[in-house]
Design brief:
The complex is a heterotetramer. Chain A has 16 helices and 2 strands. Chain A is mainly α. Chain A has a single domain, classed as Formate dehydrogenase/DMSO reductase fold. Chain A has a two-stranded parallel sheet with strand order 1-2. Chain A is globular, with a radius of gyration of 23 Å. Chain A starts with 11 loop residues before the first strand and ends in a 12-residue tail after the last strand. Chain B is of the alpha+beta class. Chain B is elongated and about 80 Å long. Chain B has 5 helices and 4 strands. Chain B has 2 domains: 92 residues, Alpha-Beta Plaits; 66 residues, no CATH class. Chain D is of the alpha/beta class. Chain D has 30 helices and 43 strands. Chain D has a 7-stranded mixed beta sheet, with helices on both faces. Chain D has a 7-stranded mixed beta sheet with strand order 29-21-26-23-25-24-30. A 4-stranded parallel beta sheet of chain D has the order 12-11-10-13. The chains are: A mainly alpha, B alpha+beta, C mainly alpha, D alpha/beta. Chains in contact: A-B, A-C, A-D, B-C, B-D, C-D. Chains A and D meet through helix 2, helix 6 and helix 11 of A and helix 1, strand 34, helix 25, helix 26 and strand 38 of D. Strand 1 of chain C pairs antiparallel with strand 1 of chain D.
Chain lengths: 463, 173, 386, 978
C-alpha cells in the first residue's frame, strides 16, 4: 500500500515499514558509540566540570569575581539565563502547540527538541541561582513555613520566575517523559541483555502498548499539550516581566511579553535546527528529518524573526513617541552609544539575516540554514545582552554610568553550561530514541514517501 | 487458572477489521496491544471517554485557588508588608504564581492519575506476550474468563480473522 | 555542654538495632572517636599506684573500711554538676590543687560551715588516706573528669533511616523480595516521614535552643536569691531599664551581700567561696550565656522592660523558681512577632505616643480598644535588624 | 546567621588597665560560632546531614565586669569632649565611646569655633587610632626595648651632648597646646635645646606679610559670614586653607537662601587648578598659576585708582582675565567693609598686596579681625639651618616627617643619620622616624591628655577616651620623664590650667569644679581684649614691584596643592580617606597631574597616561576648568613608610616644591611634560561628567530666585500635579522620616561620606575594586560639569538612599528583604538578603551597594577575605559601631537613615515619656556637615524643619517624575552670577 500525498511533501523519505522505523531510530541506542561520540562527551564533560568549578569559585569568593558592578548588577549571568530559557521554548512549543494545531511534521523532531528544551532550561536555571550573592541561603526564595513567620514577596518578578521556570521544567519533563515511555517500551523489547531489559522496563514504567493505555495516553497528551501551550507562552512572558515591570529605561516596556515569546521561539527553533542538522547526519536520520522539516521550521523562524524585527522597530518608535527623555536616550544609546556594536550585531543577525529565508532555495539549503541558525543564536544572545547591559549601563543618573566587561570566570561559566547541555544531549542520544517512534509510526502510513505496510517476511529486528 | 489466547497482525487495518469481526461474533476482547495509538481503535473497542481531563480541571482549580488564597493570606493576614507602596492585596501581582500553580497541579495530577489508572510506574512488570507488540505487531488478547466461549472456540475465532501466531497460554491469575 | 541531645531517639535505636548489625563497624567509628585515651595519667607527677589508692578511697572501694559514706556519694564526678548542692569532686580538686595536703586535711576534718560540719561529723580519716586522696584529686585537677559517653548521634539515625528507605524503595521497584507490598511501602513512608520530621525539627531548632540549661561555674540559684531572699531582679540586673543589655552583675555587686553572707543554707560555704575568691583575685566570673540571640538581631532590654514595662518572666520564664536557669522560650523570630501582635502599648500614660494622632482619635471613638505593639511598627524589619 | 557580627573586641588583650575609667572587663563576649557558619558553607543538600548531626553547639560565655565603673552602662555609649588638631584641621569634638572604645567623633555644639560639623579627616581619624602599623613599644635601632632603658640611655646621651656643646634640636609640628609650649620651654632650658616648629605646607609667608603690613605676625580671623563679596585668588578656603571647617560653616551660612535669609553672598574665585572652593564659586575666573601676582597687582591698581592709592606700572594679566576682573572690582568697591580678598600663596609679597587691598576696602577690623588670631601654622624654615649644622648633637623629631615632606629630603636624611643621637616620638612609623635611632611610640590623640589654643583665647582640652592600646607614652610625658619631673602630664596640664586660666574665669569657685566643668565643655573661652593693629602701607610698594616684575612662566607651571583628604601626608595612612573620592575629580586612591583639556589634546594625553614632570612620574588626569598652562598635583600621597604596601598609592610631589628666600613655595615654573607611554590605573568613581540635560541638579541664578523662589524648579509643581495613583495612599501613623538637602550650602567637602563610613561600618575595598565600581560608600557626592569644558560650571549633589514611598527596589526583591517601614523608611534586612542585586538594578538612583567580595571578614566561608587595606584585623575592628551589623559577602546594603540613631532616640523619648523634639535626632551625615546642608526630621510633624523645607519652593525630589515619592528633598542650587 502506498499513500503518497499529492499536495504535501512526505514526512518520511525512503521505503519504510514499521520495523524499519524501529530499527532506524533505535540504531544509535543499540550500536556501540563511535569515536566522535566519545570525543564529544569527553570535551563537553571537561568543559562542564570547569564551568562548575568556576561556579564554585564564584560562590566561594563572591560575585566580585565577575565584571558586574554597582550600576550593572546583572551581566552575562542574566543574559545567559534569558538566552537559555528562550532556547528552551522550542521543544515544548513544537510538541504542545503544534500538537494542538495538528502539525504532523512535528513528530520527527519533537522528541529531540523537547530534550533540548529540558537541558536548556536546566542550563538556564543555573544562572538565577548562581547570580545570587548568597547561594547557600537561596532557599529563602521558597515559600516554606518557618519559625520566622516570613514568606516571600509575591510581587517580585524574580519570584514569578522561580515558579514559572520550575513549573515549566517539571511540566516539560512530564510531557517529554510521558511521550517517551512507549518508546522506552520498544527499546526494552529489543534489548537482549537482562539488566538492560530491566533497566529499560524500569524507565518505561512497564509499558505494554495496551489500547486502553494508548487511549488514556492520548487524552493525557492532549490535555498536557493544552496546559503546556499557555505555559510556554507564560514562561517567557514572566521572564520578560523581570525587565518590563522595572523602572529602567529600555526595560520598562509593555511590548516585552509578546516580543520575548516570539524571540524565544525564534531562538529555540534556530537551536533545534543547529542541533538537528548535525544530529540527522550523525545518526543517519536523514529520511526522518527531511529537508521538508527544515523548511517548515525555517518558516516558523521567518515568522517569529519578523515579529522580533517589528518589535525592535516598535520599541524605537515608542521611545521617540513617548517623549520621555530617558527612554529616548536609552534607545539612542543602544544604537549609537558605546555598546552600539552589540546592537548592530543583534539587528543584523535577528532582523536582516532571517529575511533571506523568503527564498525557497535558501530555506531548503541545509548548509545555509545551519549557518543562519548559528547567526540567530548569536543574535538572540546579543539581544539579551543589549537589553540587560546597555539599558543598565546608562540609566537615570549620569553620575552612576559605568561600562561592563565580563571576566574569564563569567565566560567559563557560560561555556560550562554549554558543556552541561551537550553532555546531557550526548547521553540522551545514546540512551533514548531521538525520534518519537510511536508518533512517527502513527503518521507513517499517511505521510511516508513509500510505506511498506506488510513486511515481506516476518523478520526479526537486526542484531 | 485461566487461558489467554492471543494473536497478532502486522497491519493496523487488519487489526481494526479483526476487532470488528470478533465483536460481531460476540467475543469480548480482553486487550489490544499496538506499537502506536491506532486511529479509530478506541471507538471500535468502545472505550469510555477518559475522565482524565475532569481530574485535570479539578486539580488545576485546586492548585490555582490554593495558590491564590495562599498569596492573599500571606499578604493580608500572615504578615502584611508595604512593598513599593502597594496595598496589601495587590491582586495583579498574584496572577503569575496562581497560573503556574494551576498548570503544575493539573499536569501532575493528570500524570499521576494516568499512571495509577493504567497501573504503570517505575518497576511495574508488564505481562508481555509478544515482544514485537512494541515494534510492528498489533496484538489481540482474549481470555476465557471474559468469554463464555471455550478456549478452542476463541482460538479459532481469532485465527479466522487472519491473526498470525495464535497461541494459548495458561496463567494462575 | 550538650544541648537537646537525642533522648527521644534512644527507643527508636533499640528497635532498629537489629538492622544495625551489618553496619556496626561503620557506625562505631564515630563513637570511638569520642572516647578519650587515658595516657595522661602520669602528668601530675604521681605514680599510678598512689593515684589509684586515693581513687579507691574516694570512691569508697575496697579495701578501705569506714563507718561513713564514700566521698563520691556526695561529691559527684560530674563537672560542674547541678545534680546536688555539694561541691563536685573536680571542683574540690581544682580548689585545693595549689595547696598542700595538710590544708586539705584541715578542710576535710575541721569543716568550716554548718552544713559541711553536719555532713562531715564523725569523720575518721587517717592522714595517709587524706594524702592519697589529695594525690588523687590533684591528678584529677590535671586530667579532668572523663567525658560522659555521648549518646548515639542523630546523624546515625538519619543515615540509618536513609539506608532503610533506600532498601524499601529498591525492593518495591526492583527486587520485589517482600511479597506483601504494604511492608516496604510502610517502611518507606515511615522512614522518610521520620527523616522529614527530624529535618523539620532540627531546622526549626537551628540556632535556637529552648530548654538549654547549662551548668554554671557557680551554683547560683535564682530561686534562692529571688524567691527566698526577696531580691529584686533589678537589684543585680540594674541596667535593664536603661540599656539594651541587662547587665550581668559585676563581682563587686555580688560582694555587697556576700561580704556578710558567707554560707548558704543549701550549698554551704563552698559555692560562695568561689565568688569571694574571684573577688580577692580581682577577676570576673565567666558565666555561661543562656539567652543568646543571633548577632544580627538588635534587642533592647530598655525598650521592653523600660519603655514597654514588660515583666522579666514573660521572656525568661519562671526564673525565680529555678535553681538552674533554663531557656524557656525558643527566642525565635516568630515568637517575638506573636508577642508584638498581642502586647498592648501604654498609649495614654506615655506622652511619646501623642504623635499617633489617628490612633488616639480611634481610641476615643472606640474604633480600637487598644493599640498593640505591632500597630506602632514593632514588627518593622528595621526595629530589630539594622 | 552570624556572618554579620557586632564586634566586641577584648580590651584587656593588650595590657592591664590602670585608669579608673577602664577598670573592669567587657560585658559580653562572643566566641566564634561554628555551627551556623559551617552550615552556610555547605549547600542545602549537605545541610540536612549537618542538621541532624548538630548535637553540640558552641558555648557562649558572658563575662561581667569585675567592678563596673559608674559612668559606663554596658550597651550604652558614653560621650567625652575632646579636640582634634592636625595641621590646618581643628575641631572641638565629642567622642562617642562604646564599651571603652572610641567609635565616632561628633561636633561639640558648645564650641565657639566648630559648633556644627567636622571635616572628613576628623571623622576618619577614628581609624588612625586602630591602625595596625603603629609602633607598639620603644625601639632602639631595630631592637625592642623597655621604656626605662630608652629613657636612661637618651638622658645620658642628651646630657653628654649638651654638656659638650653640641646642639640639641627638637623639631615639632606647630604646637598649639599652651601647656606643651610651657613644657617645651622648660625642656629646652634644662637640656639647652633648640626648639623648632615645622609645617609641611607652611604659612610663614603670611605671617611675614602681616608683620610687614600690620607689625604683627598673627594670622587674623576671617569672617566669611559677614562678607557679601568674597574674592579668592587661588585660595581653597573651603577645602584646605587655614581653617576650612570653620570657613565652610561661615560661608554656607550665607548660602542658605530662604525668604528670611535672602542675602546671598557673591563669591569670585580666580584660580588655575580646579579647587573645591573654585567649584563652589559663583564666578570662577580661570587664570594661570603664574598670573596670580599680576592679577593681585591689577586688582590693587584698579581698586587703588578708586581709593586714592598710588598706581604701579605693571603688565596687566591677559585680556580675558582682565575683562572678567571688572565685575570683581566693581563688586569689591560696592561692598567696602563687607568683603574679603584672600590669596592662597605663601609668597609674602602677594600677601602684603592682599593686606593692602583689604585695608583699602576697609575690611580690616570688619571681616578680617586680629582679635582671636590663629595659633597654628607657626612653622618656618629656620630649623633646617640648625639641623644641617655640623655641630648637631641630638635631634628629637616629634610627630613630624620632614624626610617625606621637604624638598631637601636627602640633606635632612644625612643630617639625622649623622647625628649622634636621634629620637623620634610618633604614633605611626614614618619616613623620618625610621631613620632615627630611638623610636618612641606615642599614643593617638584619642588616648592622650592635652590642651589646645587654636584661636587666641579659646582653649580646649583633649582627654583620653581609650586606654592606651600599646606600650606608648605621650611625647609630653617623655619630656617630663627626661626632665625628671615627677608630675604626670595630666597633672601638669591641670596645674598649668589652674595657675593660668582658673584665675581668668569666675563661673567656678573651686579649681576642681573648674577642671571638671572644662572637661565637660571641652572648651574654655577667655575674654581677650580686642587687639588693635596699625596698618603700615610702606611695605606694599616693594611687594607690588616684586609681583609686577615676575617672569612669565615658559611651558607649564606646576601647582602643588594639599590633598583634600590626604592633607599633608597623614591621609594615606587612613584607608577611609584614601577611598573617599576627591570631591572635584571624583578619583579615589592616589594622586595625578591635572591637566587642561586643551593641553591634553595638544599633547595627546589621556586619563591615566603617565607623564614625566621633572623627575616625577605621575598619571595625568584631564581636568575641565584647569588653566591651560598649569598642572596641579595633590600633595600628601606617595607615603612609603607606615602604610600597608597594598594601599601605598600616588606619588610624593613634595620633592618638586622648593624653598625660595627661606619660604616654602608650592609652585614650579617652566616645566615640560613628557609622556612616558605608560599608563596607570585611576580609580575614577564617576565616569560620566555631564547631566545630559536632565533636571537632576536644578539650578537658577540669584536674580531669577528673587523674581520667583521656585526658579529653575518650575517642573516640580507640574509633576506634583501629575502624581496620580490607583493605589490608596500608605499611612504612616507615627513618624515619617524625611531629609532635606540644600544644594546651595553643600560645598562637597565629603565630611558626610566619611561620617557615614564611620557610623555604619562601611568596608574598605581598595583601589582595584573601587576602580571596578565596587565602592561601598552609602553617600556619594555627584559632581556634574555644565557648559564650557575650559571653565565649566560645577553642580554637586549628595545622593544616598532616597527612601521612596513607592520604591522600585521593594517590588522586585524575591524574598522581601527590603520593604517599607511604618515610619517611611526603606528597610534593608541584611540577614534576609540573598543578593540577587535586582533591587540595585531597579533603583533609579543607584544608591544600593553590594558586598561583592568578603570585604569585612563577616562571611562564613573561610579564606576568602578581600581586605587590601588590612582593616579587618581584630585591632581595626575595634572601630566598629556595635549598633550596626557588619555586612557579609553577597548582601546588598544602603543608607538606612541611621536607623540605629532613630531607634536610640525614640527609645530615649519613650523612656522619658515625652514626644521627640525636632532636631534631637541627627543622622551621622547631618551631624558631620559643617555647611548645615542636611536636615533630617519627621515629615508628619508640620512644624519640623524638614517639613518646612519640603514646602519651600526650592524643594524638589530627585527624578520625581518617576513617582517614586522619595523622602529626600533637594533645594535648588542658586548661583549669584554677575
Amino acid at each position: 500500500m502506498m499513500h503518497v500525498s499529492p499536495v504535501r511533501e512526505p514526512l518520511i523519505n525512503g521505503e519504510k515499514s514499521y520495523n524499519d522505523i524501529t530499527n532506524d531510530v533505535m540504531a544509535p541506542v543499540r550500536a556501540k558509540p563511535g569515536k566522535l561520540w566519545y570525543i564529544g562527551i569527553t570535551v563537553s564533560t571537561i568543559v562542564m566540570i570547569f564551568g562548575f568549578a568556576m561556579i564554585g569559585y564564584t560562590v566561594w569568593f563572591g560575585i566580585g569575581k565577575w565584571g558586574v558592578n554597582r550600576t550593572i548588577g546583572w551581566g552575562w549571568s542574566i543574559t545567559n539565563f534569558v538566552w537559555w530559557v528562550g532556547i528552551g521554548h522550542a521543544g515544548t512549543f513544537i510538541s504542545a502547540i503544534l500538537l494542538l494545531f495538528r502539525q504532523k511534521w512535528r513528530t520527527s523532531i519533537n522528541r529531540a527538541a523537547e530534550a533540548m528544551t529540558i537541558f536548556a532550561v536546566m542550563c538556564a536555571g543555573i544562572f538565577p541561582l548562581i547570580h545570587m550573592g548568597r547561594l547557600p541561603l537561596g532557599f529563602f526564595i521558597l515559600p516554606y513555613p518557618n519559625s520566622r513567620e516570613l514568606w516571600v514577596n509575591f510581587n517580585s518578578p524574580l519570584l514569578w520566575d522561580v515558579f514559572a521556570i520550575t513549573t515549566y521544567l517539571l511540566v516539560s519533563l512530564l510531557f517529554w517523559y510521558m511521550g517517551l515511555i512507549p518508546d522506552l517500551g520498544t527499546i526494552r523489547d529489543r534489548m537482549k541483555t537482562l539488566w538492560k531489559k530491566k533497566a529499560y522496563n524500569f524507565l518505561s514504567f512497564g509499558w505494554k502498548g495496551s489500547a486502553r493505555h494508548w487511549h488514556r495516553h492520548e487524552s493525557m497528551s492532549l490535555i498536557l499539550a493544552g496546559l503546556a501551550a499557555p505555559l510556554v507562552l507564560s514562561v517567557h512572558t514572566i521572564v520578560s516581566f523581570d525587565f518590563a515591570t522595572s523602572v529602567i529605561p529600555g526595560w520598562h516596556t509593555t511590548i516585552f511579553p509578546p516580543y520575548f515569546v516570539s524571540g524565544a521561539v525564534f531562538s529555540g527553533f534556530a537551536m533545534v535546527l543547529t542541533l538537528m542538522i548535525v544530529t540527522r547526519k550523525a545518526l543517519h536520520l536523514e529520511e526522518y528529518i527531511t529537508v521538508g522539516h527544515v523548511e517548515s521550521m525555517n518558516k516558523v523562524i521567518i515568522a517569529t524573526g519578523s515579529i522580533v524585527g517589528i518589535a525592535y522597530i516598535t520599541e524605537l518608535f515608542m521611545a521617540w513617541y513617548s517623549g520621555v527623555e530617558y527612554e529616548r536616550y536609552a534607545f539612542l544609546n543602544r544604537a549609537l552609544g558605546p555598546y552600539a556594536w552589540a546592537y548592530w550585531i543583534m539587528m543584523t543577525c535577528n532582523v536582516i539575516s532571517p529575511q533571506l529565508l523568503w527564498f525557497k532555495k535558501l530555506r531548503r539549503n541545509l548548509t545555509f540554514t545551519f549557518i543562519l541558525s548559528i547567526f540567530i543564536n548569536i543574535g538572540m544572545w546579543f539581544e539579551r545582552f543589549v537589553i540587560v547591559v546597555t539599558s543598565l549601563h546608562r540609566d537615570y543618573l549620569p553620575s552612576s554610568w559605568t561600562m561592563y566587561k565580563p571576566t574569564w570566570v563569567e565566560v567559563a561559566i557560560y561555556l560550562g553550561t554549554f558543556g552541561l547541555f551537550f553532555t546531557l544531549f550526548f547521553l540522551f542520544i545514546r540512551v533514548f530514541p531521538v525520534i518519537a517512534l510511536s508518533e512517527v509510526k502513527s503518521v507513517a502510513r499517511s505521510s511516508a514517501k513509500k510505506f511498506i505496510g506488510k513486511p515481506i517476511k516476518n523478520k526479526t529486528p537486526e542484531k | 487458572m485461566r487461558s489467554i489466547i492471543y494473536g497478532h497482525f502486522t497491519d493496523e487495518l487488519d487489526l481494526l477489521n479483526a476487532v470488528k469481526e470478533l465483536q460481531n461474533k460476540g467475543i469480548k476482547i480482553d486487550d489490544v496491544r499496538t506499537p502506536f495509538p491506532v486511529h479509530g481503535l478506541d471507538s471500535v473497542l468502545k472505550l469510555p471517554r477518559s475522565r482524565l481531563p475532569i481530574a485535570a480541571f479539578i486539580a488545576g482549580a485546586i492548585g490555582g485557588s490554593l495558590g491564590l488564597l495562599f498569596q492573599i493570606w500571606v499578604f493580608t493576614r500572615g504578615w502584611p508588608l508595604v512593598i513599593g507602596g502597594k496595598p496589601f492585596l495587590s491582586l495583579p501581582s498574584f496572577i503569575p504564581v496562581t497560573f503556574e500553580l494551576t498548570v503544575l497541579f493539573a499536569a501532575f495530577a493528570m500524570v499521576i492519575l494516568f499512571l495509577v489508572r493504567s497501573n504503570l510506574g517505575p518497576g511495574s512488570l508488564p505481562d508481555i506476550l509478544d515482544e514485537e507488540v512494541t515494534n510492528d505487531h498489533f496484538q489481540i488478547i482474549l481470555t476465557d474468563r471474559n468469554n463464555s466461549a471455550s478456549e478452542a472456540e476463541l482460538e479459532e475465532a481469532l485465527a479466522s480473522t487472519g491473526a498470525l501466531g495464535v497461541k494459548n497460554i495458561k496463567t494462575d491469575n | 555542654m550538650k544541648r537537646n541531645c537525642c533522648c527521644e531517639g534512644i527507643g527508636l535505636i533499640l528497635r532498629f538495632y537489629i538492622f544495625l548489625i551489618p553496619f556496626t563497624f561503620f557506625f562505631n567509628l564515630p563513637l570511638t572517636c569520642y572516647s578519650e585515651t587515658e595516657d595522661v595519667i602520669i602528668e601530675s607527677g604521681f605514680s599510678k599506684d598512689e593515684i589509684n589508692r586515693g581513687k579507691r578511697f574516694f570512691m569508697g572501694l575496697l579495701p578501705f573500711e569506714r563507718n561513713h559514706e564514700a566521698c563520691i556519694s556526695c561529691h559527684y564526678m560530674v563537672s560542674p554538676d547541678t545534680l546536688n548542692w555539694n561541691p563536685s569532686a573536680i571542683d574540690i580538686a581544682r580548689k585545693y590543687a595549689g595547696r598542700d595536703s595538710a590544708a586539705f586535711h584541715r578542710a576535710v576534718m575541721q569543716p568550716s560551715g554548718n552544713l559541711m560540719a553536719a555532713s562531715h561529723q564523725n569523720f575518721e580519716i587517717s592522714e595517709e588516706d587524706v594524702y592519697y586522696m589529695k594525690v588523687y584529686l590533684d591528678n584529677l585537677a590535671v586530667t579532668g573528669v572523663e567525658p560522659m559517653k555521648p549518646s548515639i548521634n542523630r546523624i546515625l539515625i538519619f543515615l540509618f533511616l536513609g539506608v532503610l528507605l533506600t532498601w524499601a524503595l529498591l525492593d518495591l521497584l526492583i527486587f520485589k523480595k517482600v511479597k506483601i507490598k504494604a511492608i516496604p511501602i510502610l517502611i518507606f513512608v515511615a522512614a522518610f516521614g521520620f527523616q522529614l520530621f527530624m529535618l523539620f525539627n532540627e531546622s526549626v531548632l537551628l540556632g535556637r535552643s529552648p530548654g538549654y540549661q547549662p551548668d554554671q561555674p557557680i551554683k547560683f540559684s535564682h530561686q534562692v536569691h529571688v524567691t527566698e531572699n526577696q531580691i529584686d531582679c533589678m537589684y543585680c540586673h540594674h541596667t535593664v531599664t536603661t540599656s539594651q543589655t541587662a547587665n550581668i552583675p559585676s563581682t563587686n555587686l555580688c560582694m555587697n551581700c556576700h561580704i556578710v553572707v558567707r554560707e548558704g543554707t543549701r550549698s554551704g560555704r563552698f559555692e560562695i567561696d568561689k565568688i569571694v575568691q574571684a573577688y580577692e583575685e580581682e577577676r570576673s566570673v565567666e558565666w555561661i550565656r543562656i539567652h543568646d540571640l543571633p548577632d544580627h538581631v538588635f534587642f533592647s532590654h530598655a525598650q521592653h522592660v523600660g519603655a514597654g514595662k514588660l515583666d522579666c518572666m514573660q521572656c525568661h520564664g519562671d526564673v525565680e523558681n529555678m535553681h538552674v536557669v533554663k531557656q524557656v522560650n525558643d527566642l525565635s523570630m516568630g515568637w517575638c512577632l506573636d508577642c508584638h501582635r498581642t502586647t498592648k502599648v501604654d498609649f495614654i500614660e506615655n506622652d511619646y505616643y501623642s504623635i499617633f494622632e489617628a490612633f488616639h482619635i480611634d481610641l476615643e471613638a472606640g474604633v480600637r480598644d487598644s493599640i498593640f505593639a505591632v500597630n506602632i511598627g514593632a514588627n518593622n524589619c528595621s526595629s530589630c535588624h539594622y | 546567621m552570624s556572618d554579620e557580627k557586632k564586634y566586641w573586641e577584648l580590651l584587656n588583650e593588650f595590657e592591664p588597665l590602670d585608669d579608673a575609667r577602664f577598670k573592669g572587663k567587657r560585658e559580653a563576649v562572643s566566641s566564634p560560632t561554628s555551627r551556623r557558619n559551617f552550615l552556610k558553607v555547605l549547600g542545602l543538600g549537605a545541610t540536612s546531614a549537618a542538621l541532624v548531626a548538630s548535637c553540640k553547639s558552641p558555648v557562649e560565655k558572658a563575662i561581667p565586669y569585675f567592678i563596673k565603673p559608674d559612668e559606663i552602662t554596658p550597651g550604652k555609649a558614653v560621650y567625652y569632649a575632646s579636640s582634634y588638631f592636625n595641621q590646618n584641621e581643628f575641631c572641638n569634638v565629642i567622642v562617642k565611646v562604646r564599651d571603652n572604645r572610641p567609635i565616632k567623633l561628633e561636633p561639640n555644639p558648645k564650641s565657639v569655633i566648630t559648633p556644627y560639623g567636622t571635616s572628613g579627616r576628623v571623622q576618619a581619624s577614628v581609624m588612625d587610632v586602630y591602625n595596625v602599623n603603629r609602633y607598639r613599644s620603644p625601639v632602639r635601632n631595630d631592637e625592642t626595648i623597655v621604656w626605662d632603658e630608652a629613657d636612661n640611655e637618651i638622658i645620658t646621651q642628651l646630657k653628654e651632648l649638651s654638656g659638650s656643646g653640641r646642639t640639641v634640636v627638637l623639631i615639632t609640628p606647630t604646637i598649639i597646646s599652651p601647656s606643651t609650649k610651657k613644657l617645651i620651654g622648660e625642656f629646652t632650658q634644662s637640656f639647652n635645646a633648640e626648639w623648632h616648629q615645622y609645617d609641611p605646607i607652611p604659612m610663614d609667608g603670611y605671617r611675614e606679610a602681616n608683620r610687614r603690613s600690620f607689625g604683627t605676625e598673627e594670622l587674623p580671623e576671617y569672617h566669611f559670614e559677614n562678607a557679601d563679596c568674597i574674592v579668592s585668588v587661588g585660595c581653597d578656603f573651603l577645602g584646605t586653607w587655614l581653617s576650612p571647617v570653620e570657613f565652610t560653616s561661615q560661608y554656607s551660612s550665607r548660602r542658605a537662601l530662604f525668604e528670611e535669609n535672602p542675602g546671598l553672598n557673591k563669591h569670585y574665585q580666580i584660580e588655575a587648578g580646579m579647587s573645591l572652593t573654585g567649584t563652589n564659586a559663583d564666578t570662577r575666573i580661570r587664570a594661570d598659576r603664574a598670573e596670580y601676582g599680576k592679577i593681585l597687582v591689577h586688582l590693587y591698581n584698579q581698586l587703588g585708582s578708586q581709593n586714592g592709592a598710588t598706581q604701579i606700572e605693571a603688565t596687566p594679566p591677559p585680556q580675558e582675565v582682565t575683562e572678567k576682573l571688572k565685575n570683581v572690582i566693581n563688586d569689591l568697591q560696592a561692598n567696602r567693609g563687607r568683603s574679603i580678598v584672600v590669596c592662597g600663596d605663601n609668597n609674602p609679597d602677594y600677601q602684603v598686596i592682599v593686606n593692602s587691598i583689604n585695608q583699602m576696602l576697609g575690611n580690616i577690623g570688619e571681616t578680617i579681625q586680629f582679635n582671636r588670631t590663629y595659633n597654628h601654622f607657626r612653622g618656618n624654615e629656620n630649623w633646617l639651618e640648625a639641623l644641617l649644622d655640623q655641630n648637631l648633637g641630638a635631634v628629637i623629631v616629634w610627630d613630624t616627617n620632614p624626610v617625606y615632606s621637604h624638598p631637601m629630603s636627602d640633606q635632612i636624611r644625612a643630617a639625622i643619620e649623622r647625628a649622634p643621637l636621634s629620637v623620634a616620638i610618633t604614633a605611626q612609623p614614618d619616613e623620618t622616624s625610621e631613620l632615627c635611632k630611638y623610636k618612641l611610640p606615642a599614643p593617638g590623640y584619642l588616648e592622650c591628655w592635652d590642651d589646645a589654643e587654636y584661636k587666641k583665647g579659646v582653649v580646649s582640652v583633649l582627654q583620653p577616651t581609650l586606654h592606651k592600646l600599646f606600650n606608648s607614652r605621650q611625647a609630653q610625658e617623655v619630656l617630663l620623664t627626661w626632665m625628671a619631673n615627677p608630675l604626670s602630664w595630666q597633672d601638669y596640664i591641670r596645674e598649668n590650667w589652674t595657675s593660668v586660666y582658673f584665675t581668668e574665669q569666675a563661673a567656678n569657685a573651686s579649681s576642681s569644679d573648674f577642671w571638671i566643668e572644662t572637661l565637660r565643655n571641652g572648651e574654655l573661652v577667655l575674654n581677650n581684649t580686642a587687639a588693635s593693629v596699625s596698618y603700615n602701607e610702606s611695605a606694599t610698594a616693594g611687594a607690588l614691584q616684586t609681583a609686577a616684575s615676575e617672569q612669565a612662566s615658559e611651558g607649564f607651571t606646576l601647582e602643588l596643592t594639599e590633598g583634600i583628604h590626604t592633607g599633608t601626608g597623614h591621609g594615606p595612612l587612613n584607608p577611609w580617606l584614601q577611598e573617599c573620592p576627591d570631591p572635584v575629580t571624583r578619583i579615589a586612591w592616589g594622586n595625578y597631574a591635572s591637566i587642561a583639556p586643551a593641553a591634553a589634546r595638544r599633547l595627546s594625553i589621556k586619563n591615566g597616561d603617565v607623564i614625566q614632570l621633572g623627575n616625577l612620574q605621575i598619571p595625568a588626569f584631564v581636568q575641565p576648568g584647569q588653566a591651560d598652562s598649569t598642572i596641579s598635583i595633590a600633595l600628601g600621597y606617595g607615603r612609603t613608610t607606615g602604610v600597608a604596601e597594598e594601599i601605598r598609592t600616588g606619588v610624593n610631589a613634595y620633592p618638586l616644591s622648593r624653598v625660595e628666600s627661606n619660604y616654602r613655595r608650592l609652585t614650579v615654573p617652566n616645566l615640560n611634560i613628557e609622556p612616558t607611554g605608560q599608563t596607570e590605573l585611576l580609580a575614577l568613581i564617576q565616569g560620566h561628567q555631564s547631566m545630559e540635560g536632565r533636571a537632576i541638579v536644578r539650578d537658577a541664578t540669584y536674580e531669577e530666585w528673587k523674581e520667583n523662589p521656585a526658579a529653575g524648579n518650575e517642573m516640580h509643581e507640574e509633576i506634583q500635579k501629575h502624581h496620580t495613583t490607583l493605589y490608596p495612599k500608605t499611612i504612616y501613623p507615627g513618624h515619617k522620616w524625611g531629609m532635606a538637602i540644600d544644594l546651595n550650602t553643600c560645598t562637597g567637602c565629603s565630611a558626610c561620606v566619611l561620617a557615614c563610613n564611620t557610623e555604619n561600618n562601611i568596608p574598605v575595598v581598595g583601589k582595584i575594586e573601587a576602580s571596578r565600581h565596587h565602592e561601598m560608600q552609602w553617600i556619594r557626592i555627584d559632581r556634574y560639569y555644565k557648559g564650557d569644558e575650559n571653565n565649566p560650571e560645577v553642580l554637586r549633589q549628595p545622593v544616598m538612599c532616597q527612601h521612596c514611598d513607592q520604591a522600585p527596589c521593594e517590588n522586585v526583591c524575591p524574598v522581601a528583604a527590603t520593604n517599607q517601614s511604618s515610619e517611611g523608611l526603606n528597610q534593608m534586612v541584611y540577614n534576609r538578603c540573598i543578593g540577587t542585586r535586582y533591587c540595585n538594578n531597579n533603583c533609579p538612583y543607584k544608591v544600593r551597594r553590594f558586598n561583592w567580595l568578603d570585604y569585612t571578614g563577616a562571611d562564613a566561608i573561610p579564606n576568602n577575605r578581600f581586605d587590601p587595606a588590612n582593616v579587618t584585623v581584630d585591632l581595626s575592628r575595634m572601630r566598629h559601631n556595635p549598633d550596626v551589623t557588619v555586612r557579609a559577602k553577597g548582601v546588598i546594603e544602603k543608607c538606612s537613615f541611621c536607623i540605629q540613631r532613630i531607634q536610640e532616640k525614640k527609645l530615649d523619648a519613650k523612656l522619658e515619656g515625652r514626644p521627640m523634639e525636632d532636631g534631637e535626632l541627627q543622622t551621622a551625615c547631618q551631624q558631620a556637615c559643617p555647611a548645615n546642608a542636611i536636615v533630617f526630621g519627621d515629615l508628619n510633624d508640620p512644624e519640623s524643619r524638614v517639613s518646612k523645607l519640603m514646602k519651600n519652593p526650592r524643594n524638589y525630589h530627585l527624578l520625581e517624575e518617576l513617582h517614586t515619592l522619595p523622602a529626600v528633598g533637594y533645594l535648588t542650587k542658586i548661583k549669584n552670577k554677575s
